[in-house]
Write a structure and sequence with these properties.
About 50% of the residues lie in helices and about 15% in strands. By secondary structure, it is of the alpha/beta class. The protein has 2 domains: about 180 residues, 3-Layer(aba) Sandwich (Rossmann fold), CATH 3.40.50.2000; about 190 residues, 3-Layer(aba) Sandwich (Rossmann fold). The protein starts with a strand and ends with a helix.
């Protein structure tokens, strides 16, 4: 008799992580069946879709309020469907605001629970760890310092690395990337990644475009490319570009790794894209802007010295981070210009990023699958 696994993944990045895990699990146990909140990558791996993963694409403490009723309905539906499915394990992939509450309900019903991608409890609101230890059987960590953090607080954790590190080459081929995008081999290229969520694109797009316009005024030959994470992000960015004007930006769907590899440096919204930029060995300027009320609270609760993944992994300020009111066209353009003007700094950063890539290149999907199957076997009725 086949066994079921319920997976709930948030957004494009979670969909991709979950799809890799499903593929690795099915390679080991072909009879497993998967269902849950999923995106197209998970569906392509045979996961039955209860709701689309983009339904969880909401960030911020107060920004979620307009979506709260819908999210609570979705959580109730997922609880009901999961209990009816009686899975061997529940796996939440990212989306901790949704998945941790869901895991609590399911754990109380006797279902083993896993969180794949740790919430940033080591950065702020560390009191959440005690609650997590009561409702999670396992955390699958993608950053190396997270495993000892959890184990020191009584919560089982495994560091599995990151699937992006497995997928992207240690040595990026800029020549091939520029040829594929029909960009000149010589000349400066800046990639712009304004995020995937509606809120972050709305808050950052005009400043990103303003920075590009300033750079174009001082560096006439510079080119700008902007791979969009989804159709919604593209529509918002194109609308902002039409409003701000004054600069040409080549916008296209997907292909972020190709664009990052082709670029000399990158202007990027904080999030998974900073990790992908690092893995493509590109210097970057990272911007992070939230609603004012959310930002006020986070600034007072924040314990980590950095918010971008390259700086967290390196343990020092390798790339510039601009937060809230510090995100202006002038500040962004100045920070990008410093990268463009300092070839030695770019080379040093690329070497560091290669070393960090090697730390994360561990066969993450396979390691995660082995950890999940070990949990299933331990919890199997004797």
């Amino acid at each position: 008799m086949s066994e079921r696994i319920v997976i709930v993944a948030g957004e494009t990045s979670g969909d991709n992580l979950a799809a890799g895990l499903i593929r690795a699990l099915r390679a080991r146990r072909p009879d497993l069946q998967f269902e849950g909140v999923a995106g197209p990558a998970m569906a392509a791996q045979g996961c039955r879709v209860w709701a689309h993963s983009e339904a969880l694409a909401v960030m911020g403490l107060f920004e979620v309020i307009p979506h709260l009723a819908r999210m609570l309905r979705l959580r109730r539906d997922v609880v009901r469907q999961t209990l009816a499915s009686a899975p061997r394990v529940f796996i939440g992939v990212d989306a901790p605001s949704f998945n941790l509450g869901l895991a609590a309900r399911l754990h109380a019903a006797g279902i083993p629970t896993v969180q794949y991608v740790s919430p940033q409890v080591w950065a702020w609101r560390q009191g959440r760890v005690a609650r997590m230890a009561k409702t999670l059987d396992l955390v699958l960590c993608v950053l190396p310092f997270e495993k000892p953090f959890y184990e020191g607080r009584g919560l089982a954790a495994e560091f599995v690395g990151h699937p992006l590190a497995d997928r992207l080459p240690l040595v990026p081929d800029r020549v091939a990337a520029r040829a594929a995008l029909r960009l000149p081999q010589e000349g400066e290229v800046v990639a712009i990644l304004p995020g995937s969520r509606r809120g972050e694109v709305q808050r950052l797009a005009k400043d990103f475009i303003g920075a590009a316009r300033l750079l174009r005024a001082s560096r006439p030959g510079i080119r700008f490319i902007a791979p969009m994470a989804n159709a919604s992000a593209r529509a918002l960015f194109e609308a902002a570009l039409a409003e701000v004007g004054g600069v040409e930006i080549d916008i296209f769907d997907g292909g972020s790794a190709l664009a990052l590899t082709a670029a000399d440096c990158v202007l990027v919204a904080s999030g998974t894209a900073t990790l992908e930029t690092m893995l493509c060995k590109r210097p970057m300027v990272v911007a992070y802007r939230l609603g004012r009320a959310t930002a006020w609270i986070i600034q007072r609760l924040m314990r980590a010295p950095f918010f971008s993944q390259p700086n967290l992994l390196a343990g020092r300020a390798v790339v510039p981070e601009l937060f809230q009111d510090a995100v202006t066209p002038d500040a962004l353009a100045d920070a990008l210009a410093r990268w463009l003007d300092d070839r030695a700094a770019r080379s040093e950063t690329e070497s560091l990023f290669t070393a960090l890539h090697e730390q994360l290149k561990l066969g993450a999907s396979e390691r995660a699958a082995e950890a999940v199957l070990a949990l299933i076997d331990r919890s199997r009725p004797q």
